[in-house]
Amino acid sequence: PEEFETHLDLLEREGFTVVDLPTALATLQRGGTLPPRAAAITFDDGYTSVHTEALPRLAAREWPFTVFVNPGPIDAGSRIHADWAALAEMQAAGATIANHGTTHAFLTRRDPRAPRETDADFEARMRAEIGAAEDRIEAELGVRHELFAYPYGEYDDRVRAWLEREGYIGIGQHSGVVWSGSDFRALPRFPFSGSYAE
């Protein structure tokens, strides 16, 4: 938490404008521009610490943020993941709750029980991981953003094409900035935790 506070202080001190991710991406897709030094803050997995530690710090600054969640562990009662009530509280405070897959599965790995995955098998797997997660978020929180952060940041051409066909924006974990000419099925992000915290 102290490290996160340092990052927030840096954004403020350096004059960044913290933007709402869905609004910023929609603006860029229309060919619009964002304020200079625009930054969107995102979290993957929806751990309880986002609710207990990040939310108060971001709410104090009135900064929006996005949390990519996995409904599977939430519905199973995982203690390390924020529950739907905590996610609703974050949403009410200005957070976007978005899709990180039902179970956080490696989407580029084929089911070892089905080494010759057919197109129908692939479609069913994407519907179970991505489509079902979007449905659960909508059922619990009443929103459908169709923003998907690839679990582990990994995707392949087939998964990317499925997102495009279904109208999702795809977000990876490779470093880089986002602009109007970005691939909106493979948007980059800068990591700021663990070994990347400095």
Describe the structure.
The chain is α/β, with parallel strands linked by helices. The chain is 41% helix and 12% strand. It has seven helices and seven strands. α3 (48-61) links the parallel β3 and β4 (65-69). The protein is globular and about 55 Å long. The mean pLDDT is 95.
Secondary structure: elements and pairs:
Elements: H1 2-13, E1 17-18, H2 21-29, E2 38-39, E3 42-45, H3 48-61, E4 65-69, H4 71-75, H5 84-92, E5 95-99, H6 119-141, E6 147-149, H7 157-166, E7 169-171
Parallel strand pairs: 1-2, 3-4, 4-5, 6-7
Give the overall average pLDDT.
95
Q: What is the H/E string?
A: HEHEEHEHHEHEHE
Alpha-carbon distance between the two ends: 14 Å
What proportion strand?
Answer: 5-15%
Radius of gyration: 17 Å
What structural class is derived from the secondary structure elements? alpha/beta
Count of beta strands: 7
Main β sheet profile: 3 strands, parallel
As residue ranges, the low-confidence spans are: none
- What is the quaternary state of this protein? single chain
Shape: globular
Strand arrangement, major sheet = 3-4-5
Q: What share of the residues lie within helices?
A: 40-55%
Separate helix tally: 7
